[in-house]
């Protein structure tokens, strides 16, 4: 953020800011009791309490208990909470309640780092606001800009957007502005900034009203997030649910130590052994996700890949197949490690160990959500020992070994080797097909996430063609 931006965002003098910040810190230390209480006790109006009941939200989660009353008092919030803790409800309910009291179009803007998360937040807003007729618009890259401009012209109440595509519309869509905006939410703020969206966020902050409520939610408090806090929040209350990195208690975590060449065989063994469960298998690359999905299909396992080189429609289709239980295994890159809430994930398998230890927490957070139990199994090869030790250090515990019988596993080796051979041929065919369609097709398959968009755009300069469909964000 630019320095003058910081000044303008925090005109309440720095000394005053620090003083109030100290007083207003609300820290909830980890207590192991079940969540109790009701949404009504937090001050949520009856119509929204009924919506919560319909979504089977019996009791508010810890972050909701702390954030909702503060938000209803009209204060800015910095929310630090672990993944799967109910953050969306913590900002959606106060916004919808304020909207009920003061109906207005373009009422709230929610910024998220990835497209999948944007669609998911929109689903929650629509479910909570169904009885009060809330209209939401999802504005993300990979979709047609003209169609999005039409949606925006209908003036929805809530806009959920990735920063890059929103800036496109603010600059290029006639008649669209956010001068009347009342609420700004930055969800997964640490990741928005890690993905090089600082310039875009800065542009957005310049064109929205200074008089607004701002909620900043993040799993981690990095220096960049602190800078963003100074630039965009006024006298915020800090709500912290977890003071150290940790994983949910009901999550059983294991590791399995195997030679790298037998990874596939052990994966198939675990899928067979735990058959009947639903799995998310994390891999490190887009090509890896496709390869494992093809391999499992060759062995008769219903698997779908999800990665950043798929078009937005295919990504949503893959997610829907998995959510509707039409497929029991989702193979994905870290595009799905944060924010995706799929209630019925029983087992997370880290086939490739994450390079960043914090990503481990987000990955395994896809299971054991909202009080349910879950399993996570991490494959550790001879090359991964150091990375694995970093993970154990971060979560502050040593994981038990997942017990397998080697003879039982190796029975599968022949079948898996044959499937690997067929997969290799299929991958080659797909590669050739892609090549023959020329570079035009290849341009569609960019990055793993929205990642590095800012850098790429700045390198290419402003001469990029402004027609929406082609521009990825």
TrEMBL record:
Q: Where is the composition biased (Basic and acidic residues)?
A: 1-15, 26-35
Biological process per Gene Ontology, one example term:
regulation of gene expression
Q: Which SUPFAM superfamilies match?
A: P-loop containing nucleoside triphosphate hydrolases
InterPro entries for the chain? DDX47/Rrp3_DEADc, DEAD/DEAH_box_helicase_dom, DEAD_box_RNA_helicase, Helicase_ATP-bd, Helicase_C-like, P-loop_NTPase, RNA-helicase_DEAD-box_CS, RNA_helicase_DEAD_Q_motif
Pfam families, per database record: DEAD (PF00270), Helicase_C (PF00271)
Locations of Basic residues compositional bias? Answer: 455-473
Catalysed reaction equations from the record: ATP + H2O = ADP + phosphate + H(+)
Keyword check for Transmembrane helix? no
Sorted keywords for this record are: ATP-binding, Helicase, Hydrolase, Nucleotide-binding, Nucleus, RNA-binding
Localization: Nucleus
Q: What is this protein's record name?
A: RNA helicase
Which organism is this entry from? Danaus plexippus plexippus
